[in-house]
Amino acid sequence: MQGLPQQTCREFIAQNCKASVLRVFPGQLLDVRVDEVLEAAKAGDRAAQTARKLLFDTRFRKYRTAMQGRRPEVASAVFKTIRMLEEARLHFFIERTRPDSIRLSVTMVGERFEIDIFEDDHLEISRFFGDEKVEGGMELLMSILKSR
User: Which of 81, 79, 17 lies closest to 53 in space, CA to CA?
Assistant: First the structure.
């Protein structure tokens, strides 16, 4: 095929695809040239069709060279907030408790906070403080449940 580099699938994957592609790529096609695999895929070969998908689907591509070493720009407040928490090395849970928001629940020693991120990308944060002492056992749980 015209315009494709004359390289094997193995070489193409190393240069352009995520390493995880190798786990599912049809092994018999790794040392076949990319243009030959595309021809076989056109002819209906199922393994070649799988290989074509793995080679050219953008979900399996590495970042472009200009992006290597940098994180891509993130437009959403959800992802910006997640990145900030990860960079601060804080553990969090993602919850969906309302139809119009996503909640990130963050727990630290003596403090817990909930970050609600709404569809319009605004945030609402609630903070809770405590000393984390043990206040009781099964009896306390039963009492709390009865009082509801």
Answer: 17
CA dihedral 4, 7, 9, 13 (to 10 degrees): -90
Question: What pLDDT score does 75 carry?
Answer: 60
pLDDT on residue 27: 93
Q: How far is CA 144 from CA 28, 30, 139, 140, in A?
A: 62, 62, 9, 6
Average pLDDT of the chain is: 86
CA dist 116 → 109, 110, 135 (Å): 21, 20, 28
pTM above 0.85, yes or no: no
Q: Where are the alpha helices (DSSP H) in the chain?
A: 9-16, 21-24, 34-42, 46-56, 77-87, 138-146
